[in-house]
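Morning!

As promised:
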Amino acid sequence: MNAPNASGWRPEMGEAGAILPATVSGDHGLNLEEKLIFELAAPGTYGVDFDDADVAPAPALGKFLRKAAPALPGLTEPEVVRHYTRLSRQNYAIDLGPFPLGSCTMKHNPRLNEKVARMAGFADVHPLQPTQTVQGALKVITQLADWLMALTGMPAVAMTPKAGAHGELCGLLCIRAALTARGEERPVVLVPESAHGTNPATAAFAGFRVENIPATEDGRVDVAALTARLGPDIAGVMITNPNTCGLFERDLKTISDAVHAAGGYVYCDGANFNAIVGKVRPGDLGVDAMHINLHKTFSTPHGGGGPGSGPVVLSAALAPFAPLPFATLDADGVAHLVEEGDAHDHGHPNSFGRMTAFHGQMGMFTRALTYILSHGADGLRQVSEDAVLNANYILRELEDVLDAPFAAYGPCMHEALFSDNGMAEGFSTLDIAKGLIDEGFHPMTVYFPLVVHGAMLVEPTETESKAGTDRLIASLRSLAERGRAGDVTLKSAPHYTPRRRVDETLAARKPKLVWKD
Amino acid sequence: MTRYFTKDHEWISVDGDVATVGITDFAQNALGDITFVEVPEAGKALGKGDTASVVDSVKAASDVYAPVSGEVTEGNAALEEAPELVNTSPESEGWLWRMSVADAGELADLMDEAAYAAYIAEL
Amino acid sequence: MRYLPLTPADRATMLARIGVDNIDALFCDVPAEALQAGPIAGLPAHASEMAVERHMGRLAGENLSAGAAPFFLGAGAYKHHIPASVDHLIQRGEFLTAYTPYQPEIAQGTLQVLFEFQTQVARLLGTDIANASLYDGSTACWEAIAMAHRVTKRKKSILTGGLHPHYVATAQTMARFTDDVLVAQAPVLSGDAEDGAIIAAIDGETSAVVVQYPDILGRIPDLAAIAAAAQAHGALLIAVVTEPVALGLLEAPGALGADIVVGEGQSLGVGLQFGGPYLGLFGCREKFLRQIPGRLCGETLDAEGRRSFVLTLSTREQHIRREKATSNICTNSGLCALAFSIHMSLLGGAGLERLARINHGKAQALAAAVATVPGVSVLNDAYFNEFTVILPKDAREVVDALAERDILGGVPLGRLYAETPALANGLLLTATECTSDEDIAALVAALKEVL
């Protein structure tokens, strides 16, 4: 029974629990369904006006002319705006709430970065313009490079890699080139078993054979096992620090010294640099190469899966082999772009070559530099401190209801790792993750790293307020308790999303990758 | 027809000089829904322990090793359209490949049905 | 600091809850000698939004932007008009600040976009299927070569003379570390697209022949003839498209027999951005499905039987296959794919065809105009929106002289082929719908002055 409100108005509504009516449209209020563009578009329609009359193609194209226009749907501008806006509402995003994906560093994306990247002097500049017409663009690259070198304590940086994995490749190619220059063939790269999958994939792509190094009880690389394996066939190691368990590899310097003594090189996966930026310089720990994900530590937007950017800082031993092209500033403050034709004149004859067309992810450089200048050295230090503080707060608040395998060994860094031990029979990490969706959060990283059963890796980042983190903690606590109690409603989560759990088996058994009439 | 088992959960049935190989019911259970099976082509030479086939589930890809040395005579073409046979009938219709047995002595290193049952009971 | 919500009081409360006295207690695993005592020395402190904007604005002001001058550059990056709605939509936070769609229930927006994008790309390139994008055209080209190697089990790929030299260099870098053998030919300054030489180079050892369409000099190779020759030798044809607008007018490479088609999608929706981020397009025959690098989005059903989309076939990828993956790539170029897809939805096939005709017409007007300059000759027999002219002297000097007059007068071949003096007098000129008659007149007048 509905009680009248203060003005005496009483909505006439059916009994609570009545079956929800179907709608003719298929939409349900603000829960909007959206067809595919191929189902919406009429042939021949488009939403662009052209200034120029159609110009008949030259007969010279006759042989190559299309028989018919491409079979692509077109929509007018109002229809396009509506289509994509409706689709966008089916996404979770940082702008809606916390995104505690471990090792992804989903921090707030400042809008000043976007504004700057869209300045015509950056957004509307061609990569092959004469360098005297792009001095400012080249200085963005050199200024960002200077910051990255200072923050890492490294003497060189390769700016062109297009993403973290591309950066890994760059670092390993430098190692490969350095070994070749020494006249050595070292076929093996050592990778800890807790490593991200890209590490072994990259090593294999660069022509190395991968051997795994075990972890110790406390979630770190087994230094004894690693040093015992060193020898003339080891090109180097790939270590993530802080590692994928969210822990600092406290013996990294010892490892580096041992690897160097054995003639190898140390690659550091910088995926988790956000935990130490402004506090620790990897160069002080003997690292030879480390990629930096600008889309993690330096806040460039993830965009639903790219584009990223992965510059690689390099030690003096690897710097001579860095890829082309690169930007430099001469004594008079004039910026140059060193390309294939002038590498020799700039004292860089040993470059392993080019990794991509043009000069890297410029649009990400402008955003990252804007972010770095906003924070400054003091702000960046605060970033890592707050990121680590938030993660440890979560660890401490939840360790009584979620198994935290490494909590006994000391604090974590920027992310807290839990396992699904202690859940009721048949309940696992997946159920907690899907339950978190119903709670209005994006799930944490699940089933990674592989060294922990049913891993849950929670990375709040520094851009969560305490109140926001407390809300996330309350939801996780509730879910942990439901999982321990075997609450069956968790098994069918999520319930409140545009789609329920999807059939991934069907998708893989009968792949449908394109729409067909 | 004698059936042997490996510690990697392959089974091999030997009938004269031709053997049929697949993965065990225990293995398919552990893998979950199989979405794709890459079977070896006829004529491929296999050494004992070589990767001969790959079985994919949604979240994992598992290598299947040759239990003995020999030459592939046939891959199970039915799995291309129906990989789920490995789930529904792992030790019969869901076989992966047939091969010759180069050295029958290699079979001696494998387990029989009872030994395999005891082995998985320990896991 | 404006991006950091924690207050000093919050920090104190949280440290107390954790049970430590100060923040450095949480960094106890860092060796003391490696822990910075204060902010890293020699670096400036934080700055206000206004101050940062001013600094960056000054740097932006040191560049001559393409829209502020008569502009004729192409060579793998093209200036096209981007409708305002494209940039508005990609800045919606739900797209901009979302992650890779690993949780399909709350990422259907991104996933449906990727499915639509894959379909648009496959139809544009004329391939059965397409992936959800790669970093850019040059890296997509290498991925295609590596995939062809996996498919054919052969090591030798032929990189034809018309392939963008940066694409060649990118592939050569990778091939130095794999067992791939790349046979690269330098382009010859001739008006035809060297089809005969390409076909003659294909043999029984060839894994793939890589042909750019239109090529780096703007010429249009006969893909159908090359595809037939490749097929006769059991080799694959990889077609590379750096200007997708061309496919509004030119027959799709897949329809002409290309087995794999890769390209640079920057032309549609993405913008020049001094070279990146761009958008790698990748399409191929369905039978190569399991060998494709990168992300794939597929259609499926949810628990209630409703059409849904999900990342699929991920057992090809690094996070599962580790060292046995088809590629080490783990991202795509999602936001650029979104921009491309929106722009393509605004154009449709009919609009794309019309845009292509306008581009072609502008290039014809440009070619006719520069041909009137004494000492300048147009090389190409056929072209889409860019072509090569031969100047009486090194084109690099000419372009520099034009830049002094605030004219961005094309890409000198000497910039792309520093080691090949025979190409030094070649200049690559591009016209698009953004090129005006006044721009063309200004270039012609300036060329007459500087030559």
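Chain A is about 30% helix and 10% strand.

Hope this helps with the figure draft.
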